[in-house]
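Below is a complete specimen:
___
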Amino acid sequence: MNHGYEQELQQARKELEKSQAELEALQKEIHAFEEQVDSHLGSLLDHLSRINSEIFSLNDTLHQIREQRLYGKDRIRNLGATTLPSRPNPLDGAPILADLQSQLFPAAGESSAQANSSRLPDIRQLYRQLARQYHPDLARSDLERLHLNDMMVEINQFYREENKEKLMELAGIEIPFYLRINQVDKTDQRREPLSELEQVQLELEQVQAQITRLSRLPSVKLSLEVKLTRMQGRDLLSEMAIDLKHRLERRLAERDYLRAQVHSSGD
Protein backbone atom coordinates (compact mmCIF):
# COMPACT_ATOMS: atom_id res chain seq x y z
CA MET A 1 0.00 0.00 0.00
CA ASN A 2 1.56 3.32 -1.08
CA HIS A 3 1.96 6.29 1.24
CA GLY A 4 -0.46 8.51 -0.71
CA TYR A 5 -3.24 5.93 -0.44
CA GLU A 6 -2.69 5.57 3.32
CA GLN A 7 -2.86 9.34 3.81
CA GLU A 8 -6.09 9.55 1.79
CA LEU A 9 -7.57 6.69 3.80
CA GLN A 10 -6.73 8.33 7.13
CA GLN A 11 -8.22 11.64 5.96
CA ALA A 12 -11.41 9.90 4.83
CA ARG A 13 -11.67 8.15 8.21
CA LYS A 14 -11.33 11.47 10.04
CA GLU A 15 -14.05 13.05 7.88
CA LEU A 16 -16.28 10.04 8.49
CA GLU A 17 -15.80 10.25 12.28
CA LYS A 18 -16.58 13.98 12.18
CA SER A 19 -19.73 13.44 10.11
CA GLN A 20 -20.88 10.57 12.33
CA ALA A 21 -20.48 12.79 15.40
CA GLU A 22 -22.45 15.56 13.66
CA LEU A 23 -25.18 13.10 12.71
CA GLU A 24 -25.43 11.69 16.22
CA ALA A 25 -25.67 15.19 17.71
CA LEU A 26 -28.40 16.13 15.22
CA GLN A 27 -30.35 12.94 15.98
CA LYS A 28 -30.22 13.63 19.70
CA GLU A 29 -31.29 17.24 19.19
CA ILE A 30 -34.27 16.19 17.04
CA HIS A 31 -35.21 13.46 19.50
CA ALA A 32 -35.12 15.91 22.43
CA PHE A 33 -37.22 18.46 20.53
CA GLU A 34 -39.79 15.84 19.51
CA GLU A 35 -40.16 14.89 23.17
CA GLN A 36 -40.72 18.58 23.92
CA VAL A 37 -43.35 18.83 21.16
CA ASP A 38 -44.98 15.65 22.41
CA SER A 39 -45.30 16.98 25.96
CA HIS A 40 -46.88 20.26 24.73
CA LEU A 41 -48.93 19.08 21.75
CA GLY A 42 -49.00 15.29 21.61
CA SER A 43 -52.36 14.63 23.28
CA LEU A 44 -53.99 17.49 21.35
CA LEU A 45 -52.72 16.15 18.03
CA ASP A 46 -53.94 12.65 18.87
CA HIS A 47 -57.37 13.99 19.84
CA LEU A 48 -57.58 16.07 16.66
CA SER A 49 -56.67 13.05 14.55
CA ARG A 50 -59.42 10.96 16.12
CA ILE A 51 -62.00 13.75 15.70
CA ASN A 52 -60.93 14.33 12.07
CA SER A 53 -61.39 10.64 11.31
CA GLU A 54 -64.80 10.67 12.98
CA ILE A 55 -65.83 13.75 10.98
CA PHE A 56 -64.82 12.01 7.76
CA SER A 57 -66.85 8.96 8.73
CA LEU A 58 -69.90 11.09 9.54
CA ASN A 59 -69.59 12.97 6.25
CA ASP A 60 -69.46 9.66 4.40
CA THR A 61 -72.56 8.47 6.25
CA LEU A 62 -74.44 11.65 5.30
CA HIS A 63 -73.25 11.26 1.71
CA GLN A 64 -74.68 7.73 1.59
CA ILE A 65 -77.98 8.86 3.15
CA ARG A 66 -78.36 11.62 0.55
CA GLU A 67 -77.59 9.20 -2.30
CA GLN A 68 -80.19 6.78 -0.99
CA ARG A 69 -82.77 9.57 -0.88
CA LEU A 70 -81.83 10.72 -4.37
CA TYR A 71 -81.60 7.34 -6.11
CA GLY A 72 -83.46 5.03 -3.73
CA LYS A 73 -82.10 2.16 -1.65
CA ASP A 74 -82.80 -0.46 -4.32
CA ARG A 75 -80.77 1.33 -6.98
CA ILE A 76 -77.87 1.97 -4.62
CA ARG A 77 -77.93 -1.73 -3.70
CA ASN A 78 -77.95 -2.76 -7.39
CA LEU A 79 -75.09 -0.43 -8.24
CA GLY A 80 -72.93 -2.34 -5.75
CA ALA A 81 -69.26 -1.81 -6.44
CA THR A 82 -70.01 0.92 -9.02
CA THR A 83 -71.18 3.33 -6.30
CA LEU A 84 -68.98 6.42 -6.29
CA PRO A 85 -66.17 6.05 -3.75
CA SER A 86 -66.01 8.36 -0.77
CA ARG A 87 -63.35 11.07 -0.57
CA PRO A 88 -59.98 9.84 0.68
CA ASN A 89 -58.91 11.02 4.10
CA PRO A 90 -55.27 12.21 4.09
CA LEU A 91 -54.92 10.99 7.68
CA ASP A 92 -56.97 7.79 7.24
CA GLY A 93 -55.72 5.03 9.48
CA ALA A 94 -52.95 7.12 11.00
CA PRO A 95 -52.18 5.54 14.39
CA ILE A 96 -50.63 8.71 15.85
CA LEU A 97 -49.65 7.62 19.33
CA ALA A 98 -47.55 9.26 22.00
CA ASP A 99 -44.38 7.21 21.66
CA LEU A 100 -41.36 8.65 19.90
CA GLN A 101 -39.72 5.53 18.53
CA SER A 102 -36.66 4.95 20.66
CA GLN A 103 -35.39 2.51 18.02
CA LEU A 104 -34.98 5.37 15.55
CA PHE A 105 -32.27 6.98 17.68
CA PRO A 106 -29.26 5.46 19.46
CA ALA A 107 -29.75 4.85 23.15
CA ALA A 108 -27.49 6.52 25.66
CA GLY A 109 -23.96 5.18 25.34
CA GLU A 110 -24.71 3.44 22.05
CA SER A 111 -23.08 4.67 18.86
CA SER A 112 -24.99 5.20 15.62
CA ALA A 113 -23.05 2.39 13.98
CA GLN A 114 -23.96 -0.02 16.80
CA ALA A 115 -27.61 0.98 16.64
CA ASN A 116 -27.80 0.53 12.87
CA SER A 117 -26.01 -2.81 12.89
CA SER A 118 -28.24 -4.26 15.62
CA ARG A 119 -31.69 -3.39 14.24
CA LEU A 120 -33.81 -1.54 11.72
CA PRO A 121 -36.79 0.58 12.78
CA ASP A 122 -40.15 -1.15 12.74
CA ILE A 123 -42.36 0.04 9.87
CA ARG A 124 -45.23 0.88 12.23
CA GLN A 125 -42.90 2.95 14.40
CA LEU A 126 -41.61 4.72 11.29
CA TYR A 127 -45.17 5.49 10.29
CA ARG A 128 -46.04 6.87 13.72
CA GLN A 129 -43.02 9.14 13.73
CA LEU A 130 -43.71 10.46 10.23
CA ALA A 131 -47.41 10.96 11.01
CA ARG A 132 -46.40 13.08 13.98
CA GLN A 133 -43.66 15.00 12.15
CA TYR A 134 -45.85 15.78 9.13
CA HIS A 135 -49.13 16.28 11.00
CA PRO A 136 -51.08 18.99 9.06
CA ASP A 137 -52.22 20.60 12.31
CA LEU A 138 -48.60 21.63 12.95
CA ALA A 139 -48.67 23.83 9.83
CA ARG A 140 -47.83 27.50 10.38
CA SER A 141 -49.46 28.64 7.13
CA ASP A 142 -52.06 27.52 4.57
CA LEU A 143 -49.32 26.73 2.05
CA GLU A 144 -47.47 24.58 4.59
CA ARG A 145 -50.73 22.80 5.48
CA LEU A 146 -51.23 21.83 1.82
CA HIS A 147 -47.68 20.52 1.70
CA LEU A 148 -48.13 18.48 4.88
CA ASN A 149 -51.42 17.05 3.61
CA ASP A 150 -49.64 15.94 0.43
CA MET A 151 -46.86 14.41 2.51
CA MET A 152 -49.37 12.46 4.61
CA VAL A 153 -50.96 11.04 1.46
CA GLU A 154 -47.51 9.87 0.34
CA ILE A 155 -46.66 8.47 3.78
CA ASN A 156 -49.95 6.55 3.91
CA GLN A 157 -49.28 5.11 0.46
CA PHE A 158 -45.79 3.90 1.40
CA TYR A 159 -47.17 2.44 4.64
CA ARG A 160 -49.89 0.51 2.78
CA GLU A 161 -47.26 -0.77 0.34
CA GLU A 162 -45.00 -1.69 3.30
CA ASN A 163 -42.21 0.28 1.62
CA LYS A 164 -39.88 0.67 4.58
CA GLU A 165 -37.04 2.13 2.51
CA LYS A 166 -39.18 5.05 1.31
CA LEU A 167 -40.45 5.70 4.84
CA MET A 168 -36.88 5.64 6.16
CA GLU A 169 -35.88 8.10 3.45
CA LEU A 170 -38.69 10.50 4.40
CA ALA A 171 -37.68 10.22 8.06
CA GLY A 172 -34.08 11.05 7.21
CA ILE A 173 -32.88 7.57 8.21
CA GLU A 174 -30.24 6.05 5.98
CA ILE A 175 -30.25 2.33 5.29
CA PRO A 176 -27.33 0.90 7.31
CA PHE A 177 -24.04 0.80 5.48
CA TYR A 178 -23.61 -2.94 5.87
CA LEU A 179 -26.95 -3.53 4.12
CA ARG A 180 -25.97 -1.16 1.30
CA ILE A 181 -22.82 -3.19 0.73
CA ASN A 182 -24.82 -6.44 0.72
CA GLN A 183 -27.27 -4.98 -1.79
CA VAL A 184 -24.42 -3.94 -4.08
CA ASP A 185 -22.92 -7.41 -3.86
CA LYS A 186 -26.27 -9.07 -4.66
CA THR A 187 -27.22 -6.82 -7.53
CA ASP A 188 -23.86 -6.80 -9.26
CA GLN A 189 -21.92 -10.02 -8.76
CA ARG A 190 -19.38 -9.01 -11.38
CA ARG A 191 -18.29 -5.90 -9.54
CA GLU A 192 -14.88 -6.11 -7.92
CA PRO A 193 -14.85 -5.82 -4.10
CA LEU A 194 -14.59 -2.25 -2.83
CA SER A 195 -11.27 -1.15 -1.43
CA GLU A 196 -11.15 0.02 2.19
CA LEU A 197 -10.92 3.62 1.02
CA GLU A 198 -13.94 3.22 -1.28
CA GLN A 199 -15.97 1.70 1.55
CA VAL A 200 -15.11 4.61 3.87
CA GLN A 201 -15.92 7.15 1.17
CA LEU A 202 -19.25 5.45 0.41
CA GLU A 203 -20.21 5.42 4.08
CA LEU A 204 -19.20 9.08 4.37
CA GLU A 205 -21.49 9.99 1.47
CA GLN A 206 -24.38 8.14 3.09
CA VAL A 207 -23.86 9.79 6.49
CA GLN A 208 -23.70 13.24 4.89
CA ALA A 209 -26.86 12.49 2.87
CA GLN A 210 -28.60 11.45 6.08
CA ILE A 211 -27.59 14.73 7.75
CA THR A 212 -29.07 16.62 4.80
CA ARG A 213 -32.36 14.69 4.98
CA LEU A 214 -32.67 15.20 8.73
CA SER A 215 -31.98 18.92 8.35
CA ARG A 216 -34.99 19.20 6.02
CA LEU A 217 -37.49 17.63 8.43
CA PRO A 218 -40.42 19.89 9.43
CA SER A 219 -39.54 19.35 13.10
CA VAL A 220 -36.10 20.89 12.50
CA LYS A 221 -37.68 23.95 10.90
CA LEU A 222 -40.12 24.20 13.80
CA SER A 223 -37.32 23.89 16.36
CA LEU A 224 -35.55 26.87 14.75
CA GLU A 225 -38.78 28.90 14.96
CA VAL A 226 -39.12 27.96 18.63
CA LYS A 227 -35.57 29.17 19.33
CA LEU A 228 -36.12 32.45 17.46
CA THR A 229 -39.40 33.23 19.24
CA ARG A 230 -37.82 32.36 22.60
CA MET A 231 -35.27 35.10 21.95
CA GLN A 232 -38.25 37.44 21.53
CA GLY A 233 -39.66 36.38 24.90
CA ARG A 234 -42.37 34.13 23.43
CA ASP A 235 -43.18 30.46 23.95
CA LEU A 236 -44.17 29.24 20.49
CA LEU A 237 -45.14 25.72 21.57
CA SER A 238 -47.50 27.09 24.21
CA GLU A 239 -49.00 29.41 21.58
CA MET A 240 -49.46 26.44 19.25
CA ALA A 241 -51.11 24.47 22.07
CA ILE A 242 -53.63 27.28 22.57
CA ASP A 243 -54.30 27.39 18.82
CA LEU A 244 -54.78 23.61 18.70
CA LYS A 245 -57.22 23.76 21.62
CA HIS A 246 -59.30 26.34 19.75
CA ARG A 247 -59.14 24.23 16.59
CA LEU A 248 -60.16 21.16 18.58
CA GLU A 249 -63.16 23.03 20.01
CA ARG A 250 -64.28 23.96 16.49
CA ARG A 251 -63.82 20.40 15.22
CA LEU A 252 -65.74 19.00 18.19
CA ALA A 253 -68.60 21.39 17.43
CA GLU A 254 -68.51 20.28 13.78
CA ARG A 255 -68.50 16.62 14.86
CA ASP A 256 -71.52 17.18 17.14
CA TYR A 257 -73.38 19.02 14.37
CA LEU A 258 -72.77 16.14 11.94
CA ARG A 259 -73.86 13.61 14.54
CA ALA A 260 -77.12 15.53 14.96
CA GLN A 261 -77.61 15.57 11.17
CA VAL A 262 -77.04 11.82 10.91
CA HIS A 263 -79.40 11.20 13.82
CA SER A 264 -82.15 13.40 12.36
CA SER A 265 -81.70 11.83 8.91
CA GLY A 266 -82.32 8.40 10.37
CA ASP A 267 -85.66 9.43 11.90
Summary: The chain has one domain: 25-172+217-265. DSSP finds ten helices and no strands in the chain. Residues 3-71 form the longest helix (69 residues).
